[in-house]
Design brief:
Blueprint (H helix, E strand, L loop, with lengths): L2 H16 L2 E2 L6 E2 L7 H5 L3 E6 L2 E6 L1 H10 L3 H10 L3 H22 L5 H6 L6 H34 L7 E2 L29 H14 L7 H6 L18 E4 L6 E4 L6 H20 L14 H14 L3 H6 L11 H12 L3 H18 L7 H13 L1 E2 L15 H5 L5 H20 L6 H11 L7 H14 L7 H5 L21 H6 L8 H4 L23
Helix pairs in contact: 7-14, 8-10, 10-11, 10-19, 11-17, 14-15, 14-17, 17-18
């Protein structure tokens, strides 16, 4: 059996595992990731004024997020934050059933748990992944502690309260504490986007992507995606979160955006369209149908994050008029904003709190009656955050996090993606022979030396997608302003790539790539046992 055949058969087994059914009691219980009612619970309006059994006022999740971002009324913030935890009660029992079914399927495939099955995609064991996440958390801890102390002082001054030892969760501008947007003095440059429609923001993200070498998205993407806020009388419910899904592993890629107009939509549009372009790059006739998922999950996320990072770059924002020509920008404060909103703050959340909770959930089979207590122990220890009052064990506050339903046992992907993003950025800057950015210098000691993309075979696999992505060689001032596009590139007729060129082309320079495509598919890694080799996972939406 060839390596390519092995990979495809492995993929079929895992797709079956994701969609398996349990007939042991005469019923049909899905052990896959999507519970049929889960997103109706997570995306349903949230009751913020309950009078007995009657809900006097319910608001959509997006409005909850807006209140937590803007309000200075601590009583209102606490009421809304506590209301946002309501779905955890309904989801706790379902989450226990899903955990048990997933673990049963994983055991039948020879894995110790469902977490082991998912971690195997990186050619790693669970202890190896946990050690990597622990080292990453410890490396970032000194910087995180400084950011945490600064944020506590700033928020205490904002709310006119004493500086707390731990951050009250309802003080933060985001429900989960995974991002702290607007924590710096400059805040987000959202005022420059006033008057810009959601359509303009999403289309601008597309213009940026094509300027760095990606081909334009096809008309079907725009026809089938759900990109803009719903009217109040739309007559349908839109699920929360932002996602990109490769429906058929070919030309049907769709994105869902559930954000109102503002800088967050502007940035997330760049991120999600980055996922879409990477999906289309793998929809290549030379890649076997079942292997069109990308190099690995974290690399997929890192590509999207790298493109989204451009949406925060000062020259790019000035070129669009988002930052007024005469407005000064303090570089240190800008880096602080990024570290709080899109960088360092996410590491203890993804690499420690959520990752360790899912480890206990799947590998240790933590009893459901201990879930909420364990969750808040992890949050307090690693994020330095606590709820405004003790939480009841009847609920499961983390169970309503959409990614834990849609992509269970995979949250370490986001921590890996952050590291890979800066490595790719470092690689880009090196190709320009330019000094590293201050942003990169800030994180180099913690992240720059950890090459977490994976085995050499995965880099070759990633290069295949970049081949398609790099075919459009357009250049633009916008891309140069964002630091992603240098001098002209040169690609040989054999498909080899030499240094310099747009982002899509540069990824190809990690490995020299020749066609036919099957020669570029990674060979078996002799250092990895066959049982763990090249485990490929079922398709998931990219968030």
């Amino acid at each position: 059996m060839s390596d390519v055949e092995f990979r495809q058969l492995d993929k079929i087994l895992l797709l079956a595992a994701e969609s398996s059914r349990d007939h042991s009691r005469g019923g049909r219980k899905a052990s896959g990731n999507r519970g049929p009612c889960a997103f109706s619970v997570v995306s349903a309006p949230i009751c913020v004024d309950r009078r007995g059994e009657h809900c006097a006022k319910a608001i959509p999740p997006a409005e909850v997020d807006e209140i937590l971002l803007r309000s200075r009324d601590l009583a209102e913030r606490r009421r809304v934050w506590e209301a946002s935890r309501q779905p955890g009660v309904a989801l706790k029992r379902r989450s226990r059933n899903w955990r048990d079914l997933r673990n049963r399927v994983a055991a039948e495939l020879g894995y110790s748990s469902y977490l082991h099955l998912q971690v195997a995609d990186y050619g790693m064991t669970v202890p190896e992944m946990m050690q990597l996440m622990d080292r990453t958390t410890r490396d970032f801890a000194p910087l995180y502690r400084q950011l945490h102390a600064s944020a506590r002082r700033r928020l205490a001054a904002r709310y006119r309260q004493p500086v707390p030892r731990r951050m009250p969760a309802h003080w933060l501008p985001e429900r989960w504490g995974q991002r702290w947007p607007g924590g710096g003095r400059i805040g987000q440059p959202g005022e420059g986007l006033r008057g810009k429609s959601p359509e303009w923001m999403v289309r601008q993200a597309e213009r940026f992507s094509t300027s760095i070498g990606f081909p334009a998205l096809p008309a079907t993407f725009w026809e089938r995606s759900d990109l803009y806020p719903l009217a109040r009388d739309a007559g349908r419910q839109k699920r929360s979160g932002s996602w990109t899904v490769h429906i058929d592993r070919d030309q049907d890629v769709r994105t869902l955006l559930s954000l109102g107009p503002g800088f967050r939509l502007f940035q997330v549009s760049h991120h999600e369209l980055g996922h879409a372009h990477y999906d289309f790059a793998y929809a290549h006739p030379g890649v076997p149908y079942l292997l069109r998922d990308g190099a690995n999950r974290a690399f997929h996320e890192a590509i999207a994050e790298l493109i989204a990072a451009a949406a925060r770059q000062e020259p790019y924002l000035r070129s669009l008029g988002v930052i007024a020509p005469g407005r000064p920008m303090d570089a240190t404060e800008r880096l602080l904003d990024e570290a709080l909103d899109n960088g360092v703050v996410g590491i203890p959340w993804a690499a420690a709190a959520v990752n360790l909770f899912e480890y206990d959930l799947y590998e240790k089979k933590l009893p459901a009656e201990q879930w909420n207590r364990r969750w808040w122990e992890l949050v307090a220890r690693y994020q330095g955050i606590e709820p405004p009052a003790p939480r009841a064990e009847a609920s499961c506050d983390i169970c309503s996090k959409a990614q834990l339903i849609e992509r269970p046992a995979q949250y370490y992907d986001y921590a890996l993606a952050l590291l890979i993003r800066y490595q790719l950025h470092d690689y880009n800057r090196a190709q320009d022979s330019a000094p590293g950015s201050a942003q990169l210098q800030l994180l180099r000691e913690s992240a720059g030396r950890q090459m977490v993309v994976g085995h050499d075979e995965r880099r070759r696999h990633a290069a295949l997608a970049a081949t398609a992505a790099g075919q459009n060689r357009g250049r633009s001032q916008l891309a140069r302003d964002a630091g992603l596009l240098p001098a002209a590139h040169r690609v040989s007729g054999q498909g080899e790539c030499r240094p310099a060129g747009g982002l899509g082309v540069r990824l190809r320079c990690w490995e020299r790539l020749r066609f036919p495509a099957e020669r570029s598919l990674p060979p078996a890694c002799p250092s990895v046992p066959a049982a763990r080799r090249c485990v490929a996972l079922p398709r998931h939406p990219r968030g």
